[in-house]
Amino acid sequence: MDQNKKHKILLQKLHDGTITESDLWSLERDSLDDPFLADAIEGYYNNDVKNKDRRKFAITKGTTKVKKLPWYRPMAVAASLVILIGFTFLMNRDNNMALQTQDVIAAEQSESSSAYNEVREAEDVLIQEEDEVIIAENETISSEGKNQSHESKKIIRSAKKQSSTQSQDNTNSTKNFLPEVAEDVSRYKTPQAKSKLNKAPTEPMMASDMAQDIYSDKSKSKNWTSSEMDINEGSDDIVVRENNERINAIDGIPLRQSGIIKGRVLDEQGAPIIAAELQTVSSDSKAITDSSGAFVIAVSDMNESITAKSLGYAPSTMSIEPELSFELKKAEQNFSEPPLLLVETMDDDERKREYARVLDNYITTPILICQRTNNDISKVRMRIEISETGYLINLDYVTDGLSLDCQTEIENLIRQASFENIFKGRKSTTFLYILRF
Amino acid sequence: MNFFSEISILLDSEEQIRELELIAKYKKSQNTSIVGQLYEGYMPLIYGVCLKYLRDSHEADDALMSIYEVITRKLLTNEVQAFRPWLYVVAKNYCFDQLRKKNRAYQRKSEAEIMYSEQVYHPDTVQDDKQVRLRQCIEKLKDDQKLIIHAFYFDKLSYKKIAETHQIEWGKVRNLIQNGRRMLRNCMENYEVK
């Protein structure tokens, strides 16, 4: 009988659990020389199969037949559409209200521009630093409009209680919500005040900070200060801490910022280096380049440097810029083999390098099939897994687009190397290896 | 080096040629039922492989169908010289891809250093005139290897039976057989040199 058909039938029996002892034995015996079959048997042995329906082993035809929709389907769709539209309408209404509130604030601001100039100078330092934050915040205002309108209403209401004696003009609709607090704030610090007013409940630091900065020497608005204290009740700790940090910043100590840095890693010829490792020098943030050599890394401190390294290249370190471009130079390879005993005392990184060096020494013959079938590929990256006893367990190709014959050639070569005991007596590890041809 | 009679090659060359013809036919007609015909013969095998790597029978069910879709696409563009090994690589890569997508690494249970080299042989297919040497070599094996090789090749017991009777994992049984065979081969070669 044809081996394939025999295996198919026997595996089906194994799947059903109806296999006889002698059939099982013959399968196992064949699997000793056939990794495909060995893998399959291992799969069946180590896992319980829940769905024992043998029909899954047949490609059924006509499964793509279109089913008729049940009658209620179109109605359900229509109903969900109606609900969706209803929701969108409600959300928009809230947004509009938020915008109206902001319009009124803006109107008040224009009236009070002369007073604003007085304080302007004293605050220049602050403004510069906050501009960036504000831009980002303003961008988010529209999306968070709903929440923020509620929040601003909240402060406004509580502030209004404190300063009810002064409330005179507030009569209609949204203007009802506009308190003296908002006026005071906007009078002295127009754009900042606006965003701060919106933000106040979530970041009490901002508002109270501002209150201290603006009013500390003028101290004319006791109303304001007391209402502000009211708002910040229960969050005094945060206020104090954040204030300290802000003071530090003013004294010239740079603010710690975080961000995401993009870049590429190239070799000397400008070709991308795939799977190069990137690491920030002090923190433990790491990244790996993709097939075009590009990477994205998150950094917690903009004053950091990033190191790029890849097997076979000399590592390089650069300070952070918005677009980082590393150029790695080829490392000088040392072909002398250190004594075997040393390897066992090495740490894992050193051992990986040593394995790669040993392989480099071993592979001296040209890789003929690869050269013939892959004209555009000059080096192959692969992950090699070596067992405790020095044999090749697994080989994954990082480089894409290798022909199957080339893969087989390389795999055979490395397996042969492991049979010739070049890794013998060394500890098991997985390492990245680059084969050039 | 010709100690052992050639064992049957796993794939008849006839079968291989038939498969290549089917692939050529599929490339021309793009009729997926041809791929179905090719794939069906391997489905229990692929299913087992997926079970091994994905460790979940539901995921293996899905993978079985996905790999079929993958090969209907790949067969059109790839130059396939031997279908069986190609399919094995495609299936394995698919499973590894799935694991990678789910951020899971494949955990190896048994560390089988399986010898899939050209010098394939089995102790029970040794020619008669080499039998004496073979006996001597088997005697030189370590006790556990000797025991397991005997149980497997001469008593024809399955891994699981052996594992049960000796109270070890079945993967260990396979390792012992593989290592035993390697020792036997070395021993027989040394014999020749002497």
Task: Report on this structure.
- The complex is a heterodimer of chains A (437) and B (194).
- Chain A has helices spanning 3-16, 21-31, 35-46, 72-111, 113-120, 124-143, 145-162, 180-188, 190-199, 204-215, 222-231, 236-250, 340-345, 348-362, 368-373, 404-419, and strands at residues 259-267, 277-280, 286-288, 294-299, 305-309, 316-319, 323-328, 379-386, 392-397, 429-436.
- Chain A has 4 domains: 3-57, no CATH class; 77-250, no CATH class; 259-328, Immunoglobulin-like (Sandwich), CATH 2.60.40.1120; 340-436.
- With 437 residues, chain A is of the alpha+beta class.
- Chain A starts with a helix and ends with a strand.
- Chain B has 194 residues and is an all-alpha fold.
- Chain B has 2 domains: 13-101, RNA polymerase sigma factor, region 2, helix turn helix motif (Rna Polymerase Sigma Factor, Chain: A); 123-193, Arc Repressor Mutant, subunit A, CATH 1.10.10.10.
- The model of chain B is unreliable at 1-11 and 109-118 (pLDDT under 50).
- At the A-B interface, helix 1, helix 2, helix 3 and helix 16 of A face helix 2, helix 3, helix 4, helix 5 and helix 8 of B.
How are the SSEs ordered, and which strands pair?
The complex is a heterodimer of chains A (437) and B (194).
Chain A: H1 3-16, H2 21-31, H3 35-46, H4 72-111, H5 113-120, H6 124-143, H7 145-162, H8 180-188, H9 190-199, H10 204-215, H11 222-231, H12 236-250, E1 259-267, E2 277-280, E3 286-288, E4 294-299, E5 305-309, E6 316-319, E7 323-328, H13 340-345, H14 348-362, H15 368-373, E8 379-386, E9 392-397, H16 404-419, E10 429-436
Parallel strand pairs in A: 1-7
Antiparallel strand pairs in A: 1-4, 2-3, 2-5, 5-6, 8-9, 8-10
Helix pairs in contact in A: 2-3, 4-7, 4-8, 7-11, 8-9, 10-11, 10-12
Chain B: H1 13-29, H2 32-40, H3 43-54, H4 57-77, H5 83-101, H6 131-140, H7 143-154, H8 159-166, H9 170-193
